Amino acid sequence: MSTDFQQARIALGLRLRELRTEGGLTGRQLADRLGWTQSKVSKLETGRQTATHEDLKAWAEGVGQPHTAPELSARLRAFESGTRTWRRQLAAGHKPVQDTLTAEHERSRVMRAWQNSMIVGMLQTADYARHIFSAYVSLHQSPRDVEDAVRARVQRQESLYRPGKRYHIVMWESALRALVCPPAVLAAQLDRLSGVVGLDTVSLGIVPFEASLGLPPANGFWIHDERLVIVEDWHAELWLDQPDNVTLYLRVWETLAGAAVYGLDAHRIITRCRRALGSA
């Protein structure tokens, strides 16, 4: 279970305890009133058990404050949807995750991406994507549906050629050099990247190693229409739609994008990374 998820669950538990205390009830008294065990009350208050929406409604009524039920349910929905653990998402494999991301791309018009460790999925070749998915299947020990996931990712790339879409993609130079696949596959991937520079729908920026950075080049994320941020971490994806969070990530993106080079200068960096691979 993710740290963020657990922290949110603990925060909800503290709120439940606060309401019980305000109602003048002990844990045992509330348990008796609701027909629960005392251990359930304790686990909910200490964040060791996730409440259901029915639990929260019963709690609000049990402590004599039924008007707090919507607030409690909103807290639960926020951390249920905000932290999407890979364990839960990959239970059926990688393709369903790709389909969910495709749906977000379909409903978005302007997208911004930052990636520091690998080529962004929207620009990956099939061979490169195959190695990425295979690595994550091994890491998460998830169902092996690599070929289905690759096809879904490549199909999503069709939106790169649709009028009305706009992709602002920025990558650190390390993403172009990371040998997360055989050198020959990376060479073909860089050739593909060179062809993206001139697309009307794509603004591709590369932050060179020698650039001065306003912020550390931390983990990658996507911003969809200034309404949703999707951040990928080892344990989970974070789906953030609170305005303050979106504003923060926009500020991060703009800072990193300000250190990038574009057009011919970006092409030169891609070319020097390609040359570093030799005859691969």
Considering the chains and any ligands shown, give keywords for the structure.
single chain, 54% helix, Endonuclease, Chain A, 280 residues, seven-stranded mixed sheet, 2 domains, 434 Repressor (Amino-terminal Domain), 13 helices, elongated, alpha/beta
The percent range for strand residues is 5-15%
Number of helices: 13
**What is the straight-line distance between the termini?**
41 Å
CATH topology of the largest domain: Endonuclease, Chain A
Order of helices and strands: HHHHHEHHEHHEHHEEEEHH
Q: Give the low-confidence spans.
A: none
Biggest beta-sheet profile: 7 strands, mixed
How many structural domains in the coordinates? 2
Radius of gyration: 23 Å
Q: Estimate the global geometry from the Cα principal axes.
A: elongated
Structure classification: alpha/beta
Describe the structure.
- With 280 residues, this protein is an alpha/beta fold.
- It folds into two domains: 3-83, Orthogonal Bundle (434 Repressor (Amino-terminal Domain)), CATH 1.10.260; 93-275, Endonuclease Chain A (Endonuclease, Chain A), CATH 3.30.870.10.
- Helices cover 54% and strands 13% of the residues.
- The protein has 13 helices and seven strands.
- The chain has helices spanning 3-22, 27-34, 38-45, 53-62, 69-82, 86-89, 95-107, 126-140, 146-156, 173-177, 183-196, 243-257, 263-275; strands at 83-85, 110-115, 166-172, 202-207, 221-224, 228-232, 236-240.
- Strands 1-7-6-5-2-3-4 form a seven-stranded mixed β-sheet.
- Helix 1 (3-22) runs antiparallel to helix 5 (69-82), helix 2 packs across helix 3 and helix 8 (126-140) packs across helix 9 (146-156).
- The longest helix has 20 residues, at 3-22.
- The chain is elongated and about 75 Å long.
- It starts with a helix and ends in a 5-residue tail after the last helix.
- The mean pLDDT is 92.
